[in-house]
Amino acid sequence: MGCSKWRAAFNFGHLKLSDLSNSDSSSNNISIANNYGSKKFPQAIIIGVKKGGTRALLEFLRIHPDVRAVGSEPHFFDRFYDKGLEWYRRSDEGQGGALEAPGSWEIKPHKNLMPRTLEGQITMEKTPSYFITKEAPRRVFSMSRHTKLIVVVRDPVTRAVSDYTQTLTKSPGLPSFQNLAFRNTTTGLIDTSWSAVRIGIYAKHLENWLRFFPLSRLLFVSGERLVTDPAGEMGRVQDFLGLKRVVTDKHFYFNQTKGFPCLKKPEGSSRPRCLGKSKGRPHPQIPSEVLLRLRDFYRPFNLKFYQMTGQNFGWD
């Protein structure tokens, strides 16, 4: 298969779906209640980025008793928007994911997409592809302009290699990283149509979100610091969500084998909780000149991203 076909297979596909009204009507905020709590639209969404550390962040947040999260990635605002907002909240066509019991580690199969929450709890979901989906900001805004948005970002060069590594495990016949990353290996022209490269142009994607949401509604989490100082980043996240700082350094230990922080053994469990085998997998060897060329390509975009967010992530 040629590189162009591989790129097409590798890139995200987004359905062209009908849009709902932009109105932030009161009906959008009505909850479905019973004796076990209410089903609400998410008050906070982890919108990106792929291979940035979004799964780790969600797993860490699940420790908090006031967080209820959708187990699978709903992909509502990029793939299933035509099903309507009520489907998003009440759907019994679960996408094969799971919901955790409040404040516990037990994962249970579910029929409904949104979990029920009690007073004082917040509903969350995570779908990393929202960040790069052109229609997503307007659609989330239509649900509620008050939605809090979390973006986990990581050095775009490392992120691209991680993205490629994940796909390589599923498609061993994939062309080399450099053949996919460059339109022309002689001139070194970067192929921005390849999703592994395109996702890392964070400033471009952020511009789209800032057309609908003020910067104050977004929190940018460092994927690197989520590894080196998980408690510190989790403190920022809990503050942003208006939660008490329950998740602290006492919950973490560093797993030397995986190279990632893990959660200490929860009460009632026989073992600590670490991310799955797909996390922390070794990256293939990429020629240094390829990585340097890619780093040069990203540098101006990174600097613009630092200016837009008011944060220097230290990738350069």
UniProtKB/TrEMBL annotation:
Protein name: Sulfotransferase
Family classification: Belongs to the sulfotransferase 1 family.
InterPro entries hit by this protein: NST/OST, P-loop_NTPase, Sulfotransferase_dom
Active site (UniProt): 51
Keywords, sorted A to Z: Disulfide bond, Glycoprotein, Transferase
Protease among keywords: no
Enzyme class label: transferase
E.C. no: 2.8.2.-
Chain residues that bind 3'-phosphoadenylyl sulfate: 51-55, 154, 162, 279-283
Disulfide bond entries: 262-274
Pfam families reported in the protein's UniProt record: Sulfotransfer_1
Domain Sulfotransferase per the UniProt entry, residue ranges: 42-299
One GO MF term attached to the UniProt entry: [heparan sulfate]-glucosamine 3-sulfotransferase activity
Superkingdom of origin organism: Eukaryota
Gene source species: Larimichthys crocea
Cross-referenced Gene3D superfamilies: P-loop containing nucleotide triphosphate hydrolases (3.40.50.300)
